[in-house]
Amino acid sequence: MEIVKGILVVLHIVGFALVFGGALAQIPAAKKGTARVLPIMLWGALLLLVTGLALVGMIYALGGAPNNAKIGVKLIVLLALIGHVFGVRKKESLSAGGLYAMAGMALVNAGIAVLWQ
After folding, report:
1. What integer best gives the mean pLDDT of the chain?
2. How far apart are CA 27 and CA 102, in angstroms?
3. CA distance 44 to 40
4. Which of 59, 58, 13, 21 shows the shortest CA–CA distance to 41?
5. What gap in Å lies between CA 17 and CA 40, rounded to an integer?
6. Residues 35 and 103: beta-carbon distance below 8 Å
7. Domain ranges of the chain
8. DSSP string for residues in 14-41
């Protein structure tokens, strides 16, 4: 079971990297007015959701007790991120502020995971 948990954690980190890296990679394009939401950013956000739910489910299945407040806050931030990505993904051009918001929500989510004990 530890191997499965480790794989899920790695995939969770990959999801963060896809969202955060994709948003930062589009910043130069925002200065030109051609920035957009990359499909990989959407997939990364969905990967964060699926792997996060699977990790929490594994904790419950193994008889543990996760920090529900922490998980709830992370879920709210993640749902805001997914909502933002879905809301602006069809736009032809995205502002730098929208990209910074995506990167910021991903970074806040990672910060909560690491810093909240």
Report:
1. 94
2. 11
3. 6
4. 21
5. 10
6. no
7. 2-115
8. HHHHHHHHHHHHTHHHHHHT-----HHH
pLDDT in tens, 34-87: 999 999 999 999 999 999 999 999 999 988 899 999 999 999 999 999 999 999
For residue 28, give the nearest of 85, 84, 99 by alpha carbon: 99
For residues 82 and 87, give the distance between their C-alpha atoms in angstroms, rounded to a whole number.
8
- How far is the C-alpha of 49 from the C-alpha of 83, rounded, in Å? 12
Token reading at 42: 């959407």
What tokens does 89 get?
């993904």
111, 20 contact by CB (below 8 A): no
Read off the amino acid at residue 37: V
Residue type, 72: G
Q: Are the C-beta atoms of 26 and 69 separated by less than 8 Å? A: no
Question: Quick one: tokens of 46?
Answer: 């969905």
